Structures are given as structure tokens and as C-alpha cells.
């Protein structure tokens, strides 16, 4: 079996019942998909206890925004551009500009959320699942 992502996904011994990657095995539990793994770990490690439904919903929204809208969008762009034979420079430029426009529409919202957080975590004194997908990165211009 080749080590490429597609071949690994098509091998049920690696990718599990849904044919997805990544996969995490925790004891006898097999979980596929990044968000599901993050949610499982969030609750398994005790961060979900005592939270409100509102905090859980906001955390899920941050996770979706950070993962699906940002990461997956960029991966899709790479896959589309990389798999097209005979793609023109204009088509590459259009694809990149489309991705850039979407990312640029998301980043200000994430920056506002991060800047308005009153603690090191996005939604309070303990990490929420969204904290695992959205991180504060040091400003390289500040020493």
C-alpha cells in the first residue's frame, strides 16, 4: 500500500468504517475526522464538564470556522490546482484569489474573537474545543 492519503483512506484497516483520515484509536474506540477527534478529546480530557450549551455551541462554531473554513479551503485549493492537467496561469490565479478572498473574510472575525478574549482562552478560564483550532501566534514584529 502506498503511503499517500488517498490510498490510506481507501484501506479500511487504516481509515476505519467511514474511510476518513485522520483517525484516532483510544482504547477500543476508533474516531475519524479532525473535528470529531477534537470533540472527543475535549470531553474525554474533562474540558466539557460544567459548560453551558451556549459555550458548547460557540466552541463548535470556532472549531468549524478554524478547521473547515480555513484549513479545508486551503487543502481543496491545493488539490484542485494540483490535479488539473493543462491548467492555465489564469485559472491558478483565479483559484488562489478565491481562496484568498475567503480567508481574508474569515481572519478579521477570528482576530476580533482572540483580541476580545479576557483570558488566554477564547471563551473563559478553561480551554474550549475551539482553542485547539485557533491559536494566538506571537507578532514577529514585536520583540
Name its key features.
two-stranded antiparallel sheet, 55% helix, 143 residues, mainly alpha
| Arrangement of strands in the largest sheet | 1-2
Number of helices: 5
Distance between the termini: 48 Å
| Overall pLDDT confidence | 77
> The biggest beta sheet, please?
2 strands, antiparallel
Radius of gyration: 18 Å
Instruction: Describe the global form.
Output: flat
Structural class: mainly alpha
* Content of β-strand: 5-15%
Which bin fits the share of residues in helices? 55-70%
Uncertain regions spanning at least 5 consecutive residues: none
Number of strands: 2
What does this structure look like?
The protein is mostly helical and 143 residues long. 55% of the residues lie in helices and 6% in strands. The chain contains 5 helices and 2 strands. The chain has a two-stranded antiparallel ribbon with strand order 1-2. The longest helix is centred in the middle third of the chain and has 31 residues, at 53-83. It is flat. The termini are far apart.
Quick structural gist:
The chain is 55% helix and 6% strand.
Helix and strand topology:
Layout: H1 5-9, H2 12-15, E1 23-26, E2 29-32, H3 34-44, H4 53-83, H5 89-116
